[in-house]
Amino acid sequence: MALKRAGRIKILHVSPEAVPFSKVGGLADVAGSLPPALGELDADSRLLTPAWPGVLDAAADRGFKLTRITRKAEAAIRWRIYRGSVWKCSGPGMEAYLLDEPSLFGGPVYPDELTPYSATPFLFLSLAALDLPEAARWAPDVIHCHDWGTAPLSAALGWHRYFREAPRSFSTVFTIHNLAHQGLLPLESLGDWGIDPDGAGVDGFEFFGMANLMKAALIASDAITTVSPGYAGEIMTEEGGEGLGGLLRSLAPKVSGILNGLDDQSWNPASDPCLPAAYSHNNMAGKALCRQKLLEAAGWEDDGRPVFVSVGRMAEQKGLSILLPALERMTAMNCRLFIMGSGQAEYEGAVLKAASRFPDSVFGHIGYDEPLSRLAYGGGDFFIMPSRFEPCGLSQLIALRYGAIPVVRAVGGLKDTVFEEGPDKNGFVFPDYSPESLLEAVSRALKTFADKGAMAKLISGGMKKDYSWRQSAPLYKKLYESLPAR
Ligand code: ADP
Question: Taking the model in full, what pTM does it have?
């Protein structure tokens, strides 16, 4: 039974990436915007995230107040004590701790290959978080871990020789942002960071002969959430469970799906400084200029053809294996495609090849470029997202807010947020993971494109819908309050 806590509930979020400090994908958007949204609900909600290269300078440039706390946060890994300086970073809506240990947080956020050595930054972030309450003299009621990079924190509470015995005054929540990345290490490496040999069994880390960080965290956490109700159902199946479906079914009473919210202040076409003109659902005039600038960025003249935009990681998850074979037929159907992203070399190469083959219809930008992505959302007529699986997806929420009509596959969070039927109709949805199913949705989208009134209605409905944290943050708060006070 949940016990009543005195005063405001205190939550520490721990994430390897968080906007505005660092960003690789949607996790950063969520980890940066959920804590302030909880603050609005009168929770004392703080964030711990690494000071990756440039983060401290960027925080100072943004006007955040930075103060180094006196004591360092420490953790022992492979018989060495790592000590990280902790910078308290405060500003409007933000209370964060930036963990600074240049020998660990001196490179890109995620390594190309996970090894016991390249995992050290994540082990340190996780174990240092357990030392933070003492270092910062601030005791959270709940520690909320985000994704595999912080899984060692919850896992340590289950099997770490010190932490499993140590008194603690907090409960834990673990959020699965993407079950495809679980953090696999050799079983033998567990002892190097203090895990007792009894953690190496099937009731702990063991997963097909490897140590699975996320698996252990799922078992050891008090509550598990994932980022949409649709994905919460899918991860409990054999097909969507990535090897952990059975375990998640057995843990079902503590699993829930809470839709990610969008930071609709940062993602707002009425005030986005990256857009050449502002617009809103009441006054759409500026969107035409955004579209014009997007066409110019692609080197195109406007000839009335619709522009389908895609912004995202070029990974198998994102459906490039059905989008790429559909490109030629889309161009034949009179579509233009503005595709931006980076990731697997074979997909990057294929996009560039299509762009050189169809220079007047396909444009490819390889790389991470937030201002250009904002122009793409602002200038696009449609946003295409044919994901094989999609835990929540923020891109389609941004697209809705910017009046680019989503064309998505009915999976995970896409299925929960984009509807082709009913009163909430706001886009086009296809069922099968195939180029044919995608093309059928594109052809339905094209029919609507020819009908200005229907387009305007769809766009305005999508822009008006509230997919912000105002809907979802209260659900997290309720969850925290339901956890046992320790
Ligand atoms: P995921 O977290 O799986 O990458 P999401 O749709 O949840 O996917 O979030 C992706 C976020 O990253 C969105 O904010 C999107 O705009 C952004 N993004 C992805 N690729 C790029 C890119 N190449 N340039 C700019 N922003 C990008």
Answer: 0.94
